[in-house]
Specification:
Length: 394
C-alpha cells in the first residue's frame, strides 16, 4: 500500500494547478503544492493503478461514484483546477480515446441509448431543470437572467434565426419536452412536428399540446429521424438542439444527407450542438454511465459535411460560456433539491450525476468542449437578411 501512495503522490502532483491536501485510507495526510490548500481529496480505498494508467476518466469516475474518492470543496472548481493544468490527464483525452470501442448506432440502438438517459423520469428532471423542462444550453442575454429566462431567450433566439413565417412546416429533430415547437406555433403560426425517441418526452409533449389547444398546429411523434426520410417528409425549416451528439461518428454523414433530403430548396436549418476542436471519441465514463452511444463532432467535420451536401453555412456562433452557466445552474439546483433526489435515486446515482453536471460545467469553462449554433440553407437563399440586426429586434 505504501507503493500505492508513491503512485498517487506522483499522479496528484501533476494533476492540479492549485495546492491540494490529500488524506489517505490509513489517516495519513499530505499536501501537494505551495501555500494554503484550496481543496482536500480523500482517498478512501484501493483504486487500481493499472486502471488509472489505462483510462483515468473511467477509473476516477467510478472511484468517485463508489466513494473510493471524495472531495472537500466545490467539485466543479476542483475539476477546473485540473483543466487549468495543461499537463494534466484531462488534456490527453485523444490518447485514451484510441482504446474506446466504437459500436454502430442503428435505429434500434439509438432508441435504447436515448431512453437510457432521457427516460430516467420527469419527476427527476423536473427537480433541477427550469419550468420549461428545457434540457439544453440556455442563452443569458443579461448577467442576472434566471435559468428560466435563459431558456426562454434561447428558444426565441433560435426561432428568430430560422426566420419563420405563418403556415410554414417546421421539424424539430429531438424535440425534448416540446417547448420549442409549441412556442413556434404560438408566436409564428407555423405547423410544427417534433420527434423524439424518449417515451417520457413524447407523453409529456403530447400533454402540453393538448393543454395549449394546439392539436391542429403541433404534432409529436415517437420516431427516429431516419424513419421520416423513408416517408418522404418535406419541411421549410429544420431545427435540432442537442441531438446530433447521439447520432454517432459513423452516422454524421447520413444525418446531414437526411436533413438535406427533408429540407425544401432554399429552406433554412439550425443545428445547435456540442462541438470539439478535433475528432475523438467521448470518454468511456460518459459513454458507459451517462450518454451511451454519444459522440461529439468536431466543427470541421460538420462544416465539411454541410459543403458536401450543398448546405450553405450562413452563420455560426459559439455559446460556450452560456453552457458553462447553464450547467452551473443545473448543478446548483441539483444540490438544492438533494433531499428530494434522495427519495427517488440511490447514492451511487447521485454521485454519478453530481460528477457529470459539474465535470461538464468545468469542461465548458476551462476545458475542451464548446457548443455552436450553425445556420445553413439548402442551396442559395438570397432572401437572408444581410446583417444580424433582425436577431436583436423585439
Amino acid at each position: 500500500m505504501e507503493l500505492d501512495k508513491v503512485f498517487f503522490k506522483k499522479f496528484l502532483q501533476s494533476a492540479f494547478s492549485d495546492t491540494v491536501e490529500v488524506k489517505y485510507w490509513d489517516g495519513m495526510e499530505d499536501k501537494y503544492g505551495d501555500g494554503k490548500a484550496k481543496f482536500k481529496i480523500y482517498i478512501n480505498g484501493h483504486i487500481s493503478k493499472k486502471n488509472i494508467l489505462t483510462d483515468p476518466f473511467l477509473a476516477i469516475g467510478e472511484a468517485y461514484m463508489n466513494n473510493l474518492i471524495d472531495f472537500e470543496g466545490n467539485i466543479r472548481e476542483i475539476i477546473e483546477s485540473v483543466y487549468r493544468n495543461k499537463d494534466s490527464f484531462l488534456h490527453k483525452a485523444e490518447i485514451f480515446s484510441k482504446i474506446y470501442k466504437v459500436i454502430p448506432n442503428n435505429i434500434k440502438r439509438s432508441k435504447k441509448d436515448v431512453q437510457y438517459h432521457y427516460d430516467l423520469g420527469d419527476d427527476f428532471y423536473s427537480l433541477w431543470l427550469d419550468e420549461t423542462m428545457t434540457y439544453s444550453c440556455g442563452y443569458f442575454m443579461k448577467e442576472e437572467d434566471s435559468l428560466y429566462q435563459a431558456q426562454v431567450n434561447k428558444v426565441n433566439y433560435i426561432l428568430k434565426k430560422l426566420q419563420l413565417k405563418p403556415g410554414q412546416k417546421l421539424l424539430d429533430i429531438g424535440c425534448g419536452w416540446g417547448n420549442l415547437i409549441i412556442t413556434a406555433a404560438q408566436k409564428y403560426g407555423v405547423n410544427a412536428l417534433g420527434i423524439t425517441l424518449s417515451k417520457k418526452q413524447f407523453e409529456k409533449t403530447n400533454k402540453k399540446i393538448l393543454e395549449n389547444n394546439l392539436q391542429e398546429k403541433v404534432q409529436v411523434k415517437l420516431v427516429d429521424y431516419r424513419e421520416l426520410v423513408k416517408e418522404k417528409y418535406s419541411f421549410d425549416r429544420i431545427v435540432s438542439v442537442g441531438m446530433i451528439e447521439h447520432v454517432g461518428r459513423q452516422n454524421l454523414s447520413s444525418y446531414m444527407e437526411d436533413v438535406k433530403a427533408m429540407l425544401k430548396e432554399g429552406g433554412i436549418s439550425l443545428l445547435h450542438c456540442i462541438t470539439a476542436q478535433t475528432e475523438g471519441e467521448v470518454n468511456q465514463w460518459i459513454k458507459k454511465y451517462i450518454f451511451p452511444g454519444g459522440y461529439i463532432p468536431s466543427i470541421r467535420q460538420l462544416v465539411s459535411l454541410m459543403a458536401d451536401n450543398n448546405l450553405h453555412l450562413i452563420d455560426v456562433e459559439s455559446l460556450r460560456l452560456h453552457y458553462f452557466k447553464t450547467l452551473k445552474c443545473w448543478a446548483e439546483n441539483f444540490e438544492n433539491k438533494l433531499e428530494e433526489v434522495k427519495k427517488i435515486k440511490d447514492d451511487v446515482f447521485i454521485r454519478m450525476w453530481r460528477l457529470y453536471l459539474n465535470a461538464c460545467s468545468a469542461s465548458f469553462h476551462y476545458g475542451v468542449m464548446d457548443i455552436h449554433q450553425f445556420l445553413f440553407t439548402k442551396g442559395l437563399n438570397n432572401d437572408i437578411p444581410m446583417t444580424r440586426d433582425y436577431l436583436y429586434e423585439d
